[in-house]
Amino acid sequence: MKIHEYQGKEILKKYGVAVPRGEVAFTTGEARAIAERLGGGVVVVKAQIHAGGRGKGGGVKVVKSAAEAETAAKALLGMKLVTYQTGPEGSIVGRVLVEEGLQIARELYLGIVIDRSTEMPVVMVSQEGGVEIEKVAHETPERIFKAFVNPALGLQPYQARQLAFSLGLTGDQIGKAVRMMTALYQAFVSTDASLLEINPLIVTGAGDLLALDAKLTFDDNALYRHADIKELRDVSEEAPLEVEASKFSLNYIKLDGTIGCMVNGAGLAMATMDIIKLAGGEPANFLDVGGGANAEQIKNAFRILMSDKSVKAVLINIFGGILRCDVLAQGVIEAVKDLGVPVPIVIRMEGTNVELGKKMLKESGLNFTTADSMGEAAEKVVAVGSSR
Amino acid sequence: MAVYINRQTRLIVQGLTGREGTFHAKAAQAYHTNVVGGVTPGKGGTTHEGWPVFNTVADAVKATGANATVIFVPPPGGADAVMEAADAGLPLAVCITEGIPTIDMMRAMTVVRARKMTLIGPNCPGLITAGQGKAGIIPGNICKPGRVGVVSKSGTLTYEAIHQLTALGLGQTTCIGIGGDPLIGTSFIDALGQFAADPETEAVVMIGEIGGSAEEEAAAFIKASFKKPVVGFIAGQTAPPGRRMGHAGAIIAGGKGTAAEKMAALTAAGVRVVKSPADIGRAVADALGSR
């Protein structure tokens, strides 16, 4: 789960990480009031959307007075912000962070993720802050310094010191950096984060270290034990159909094509998208109904699939292990009868009770196309989809 | 022969008395597996569906001589169950549980590695050796004893591959679902190492998916030392970057972990990479036919 920058900073503050003074505003009046509370001098007004690349996209404005802060907030609130991470459809700005302006001497980078091959958290730092870290990693990997952390021990002071020295910090900045990294590591593990990124981590003119940005992503599997974090979810940042699907434990991701698909299992769902593409079509979505889907869930899955108006045909590909083919057939039949699905449906199913399932489909009197293999199913669905 | 699980396996079920645990313990027994008992804390001393239930894994191992466990414990206790199995000295644990927090799993891995336990999963369909036994949820009726080993990150896509192998009369030795989480106990390389040493396995199907670098690492291993023919498929060729495709590990992040990269690495290692999941079985038949 992703959260906004201002929410991330609130969390980091609790762990003792220094962040600029600032508050979130939902209206232009609030933005002005916050700027006044910050002293009425230079402030930064930052659009709060989940995607990165906001600065380049025009979502960050530096202004000199509270009145200008209000004007900046007016321009940003309601704006459709397009960045390299949002895609061309952009994201609507619903809130802005108004923060004190700071004198920046250096921009550094710090990130923490869990490294799959060593099975340890890795703290990464670089002197190349403020730019896309992927670019640094690709072009000059030697400029990224890493510390792998034993999960039983946590980040050790010597590791943080090594990182601090590799960042070119000196004097009392070393101690400040060690305390900050220790606090960031603590925040990472305590909140079950999957990504913690401070880009940039700044050194001010006065020599202080602050998190000027904060990107935190949390492990969805661990949200059950973080009620406070769960509350920070901003559903306006998510696609409405995906939010709807999640209510029924369906895993749905909207894509740009015209062939809707409904599959059990994530790997098979991706493979089904792939085979649709190979057959000359474009998948309209990823949809995993899960291993233990019942008739009711199949119905909800259909409803969500059909809310996407670009869907011209549907491919159902189910390999029944725990999910029995007769249960699937019953769900599909009920859904089509209740919802009146207006597009052709191609069904390929295999596994437990497949004969019974096929018989039910045939005897339903409804117009289904069936297929015996994945390849055949993909060809059939692309053929009926493109003839419409 | 075959790998990880066979007729000598004495299996316990952690979470036996739950709905999933009960259902799959019965299915395993029906598939010739020697299920010797189960563990549900607080229900020790009782019996469930004819099996003795123990409070702890250590008790179960002591009383039954179990040498493997399959874990159907809900996610909050999943990592703890894995550690308990490792601490009891079991050589093999198969963790089916989906949704274990990554940080829990990361801590559990330190115990798994220290104890040198083979962990399959978590978030996986488990293991099946055709005609001999199973630990997990792979349906037995789609398997047929034969010549091909299967190792996969996926669940139902594995069934698809198994089904194709059975339909073509090639059959399987052992099928291993290693799971789609960011942290898993057994890698492609570990499984390939087992298949290399198994005389009954003549060829291997390897099914990967987007995210991470496990497929690239496997490609390097195959190139360096794996002699049997391998057919590969990577799911997610059409997946958009930055989106988690169901499995926690299946995400193209920072331009890394794409299907194209993985397919190129495997092809360069001599793997027969198929673009279509419908071609997996036929590619294996071709590979074996040309030997």
Report strand % of chain A: 25-35%
Low-confidence stretches of chain B: none
Tell me the total number of β-strands of chain B. 14
Radius of gyration of chain B, rounded?
18 Å
Overall body shape of chain A: elongated
Residue stretches of chain A low in confidence (pLDDT < 50, at least 5 long) are: none
Helical content of chain B stands at: 25-40%
Global mean pLDDT of chain A? 93
Task: Specify the helix fraction band of chain A.
Answer: 25-40%
Strand fraction of chain B: 15-25%
Shape of chain B: globular
Determine the mean pLDDT of chain B. 95
The description of the largest β-sheet of chain A is: 6 strands, antiparallel
Counted beta strands of chain A: 18
Termini separation of chain A: 38 Å
Q: Biggest interface, and residues per chain?
A: A-B, 56 and 62 residues
Category by helix and strand content of chain B: alpha/beta
Question: Top keywords for this entry?
Answer:
heterodimer, A: 388 residues, alpha+beta, 6-stranded antiparallel β-sheet, 4-stranded antiparallel β-sheet, 13 helices, 18 strands, 37% helix, B: 291 residues, alpha/beta, 7-stranded mixed β-sheet, 22% strand, globular
